[in-house]
Sequence to fold (428 residues):
Amino acid sequence: MSRVIARADEGNVPTVTTERGERAVFCGLTSIIWLHRRIQDAFFLVVGSRTCAHLLQSAAGVMIFAEPRFATAILGERDLAGMADCHEELDRVVSELLGRRPDIRRLFLVGSCPSEVIKLDLANAAARLQVVHDNRLRISAFSGSGIETTFTQGEDQCLTSMVPDLPTAKEGAQRLMVVGTLADIVEEQFRRHFTSLGITDVDFFPAARADDLPSVGPGTRVLLAQPYVSDTVSALSKRGAKLITAPFPLGAEGTLGWFQAAAAEWGHSAESVRELLATPLARAQKALAKAKECLQGRSIHFLPDSQLEIPLARFLRDECGMSLLEVATPYLDQTLMADELQQLGAEVSLIEGSDLDSALARVRANRPDLTVCGMGIANPLEAEGLRTKWSIELIFTPIQGFDQVADLAGLFARPLMRERQLEVGSWS
Fold:
């Protein structure tokens, strides 16, 4: 394990300690679970092992009679030994799939650890299959391998694979592109708020339909709904889009800041945005009050897992009154996190990367009231009397925006409330 101290950039931002060592995270294949729910006419074909198939079925809770929009093309021993033509077999599987599912409008070939180990070129396979099925649907490939990435980065790879298909925007047309998967109900709420601000040219990427591709060009302003889309932002920037730096829409004040940053591109002042959004802001603050009673003054420790850790830490400290013992994130893009880092402040202990043994040792030494971590780490910590919150639950649950503020705080309050109930029950 190696640890180096990275000096913070200008301003009141945390100094970042970088760790390199063991980590415990899900692989990028997990992102298929929320992506296939969002892009409703897409299909995700994983080229991997039976372990990959079991992971997806377990994560999605798929019943045997269900027919979801994802599957695994199993790599057998002959494939792994180089004794079979994987491309020929893949062509056959894709043809059978499309014959059976004529409703599919986009096919993603998803790489896994096994397919990457045997150097199976799925990008070329996707290009070849696109020629064969060109009038039928779009086909692209991305990696969901867990060798180098954590589970949320699967979405980043998926969206990046779609950027070349985005049409070129007309010159002079200014549009807003909200990037990152959101629940349909959150998108509807955000559209209403943008309309109230006079911003009507808004696209959401990814959209609910595969053919609903937003245009991109120099007039495109990119606003991030999720923090783990660094490669997507780079790909959009190369096509002329401009990133709007903003806090992420988590919490009442975070959501307000998000809308203020977007509206500034359309010439609106921060004060006018606060006035126009006063009603949903007040509703969110009122809804937060009950959960805040449980969280106020409690300590929290973030282990690295989802890349949501920094904006969540800001929300829990500034809007819920929690104490931050340590905030760790698997990867830190300081450009995307610029506003969040400024708000977090220099006094926060911020870790990028992971050395699992050292991280767990600090949790055990600090004994926080709540630890946010992956599922594989949670049970051992619970057995030691430490309360935990699964970070993956924060991905599957709609938590962005004003109307979800109470639900977001409730995800952290519930483990602490359950602990109190158990304590009371033990004395009755």
Notes: The CA atoms of residues 297 and 322 lie 5 Å apart. The two ends are 48 Å apart (CA to CA). The chain has three domains: 2-24+284-427, 28-149, 175-279.
